[in-house]
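Please, structure for the following, as C-alpha cells.
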Amino acid sequence: MADAERLAAYAEEVLGPPATWRPAPPGYPEGLALCVIDAIWSMGVRYAAVENVVDCYRRSRRAEGGDPHLDGAFELLQHYERIGGPERFATEMKNRQRVSTRPGAVLKAAAIYQAALGLQGAGIQTCEELRAAATGAGEARVKGVWLAVPGQGSGISWRYLLMLAGLPGVKPDRMIRRLVARALGLPDVAPDAAVCLVTKAAELLAVSSTALDHEVWRHERKRRRRRRPDVAE
C-alpha cells in the first residue's frame, strides 16, 4: 500500500468518516491584515493566544471605526503608525511573544509589520491580490518576500497565510506531521513530504486538503491536551 493510501486509511480510522468532520473555519478571505496576524502569531504557540490577539485587533480597529475583516496591508500599516509602531502594537495586543526563543529574536508584532511592508512593496494589498499572485507568475517573488521576514523561513506560515486567504492547502506544523508520522510508523516527516501526503490522502478521501488538515489538527490538539495541556500547538 502506498504511503498516501496508508495515511488515508489511518485518517479515516482515527478521525471517522469525512461526513462527520467539522467544517474548516473560513479564514479571512477578505481581510489580508488578519491573515498576516494569524499566520505569523500562530507559529509555535497554543492557538488560544492567537485568538486573543485577533480579538484585540478586531476591537481596536472597530473602535477606530474600521472593519478588521476588510483591512488589507495598507490599513494594517496605518494602524501601526497611528499607535506608534511594533512595540506599541505588541502592548495593544497584550502579547509580547517573539518569533523564536533564540537570543535577539524579534517580536511577532515586528515580524507582522515587516511582512505587511513587504507585501505592500510587492504590490499586494488585498487577499484577492495575494491569491492571484500565489497562483500565478508572481508566486516566487511574493513568497520570497514572506520568507525573508524574521522567523518565517521554514515556509510553514506562508502556506498557512494562503489557507487563511482562501486557497486550499496544508499547514505542515507539528500537529500535522505527528499524525502523518504515526500513520506511517515513522519518527517524523519533513514538512514538504507531509504536505504532499496529506494532499494525496485528501484526494483519496474525496475531501479538500484544507478539510483534512483541519480535522487532523483538531484531533491532535485534543490528543495533546489530554496528555500535556501546557504544550504549544
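Residues 3 and 184 are 7 Å apart (CA to CA). The chain has two domains: 3-24+170-227, 32-164.
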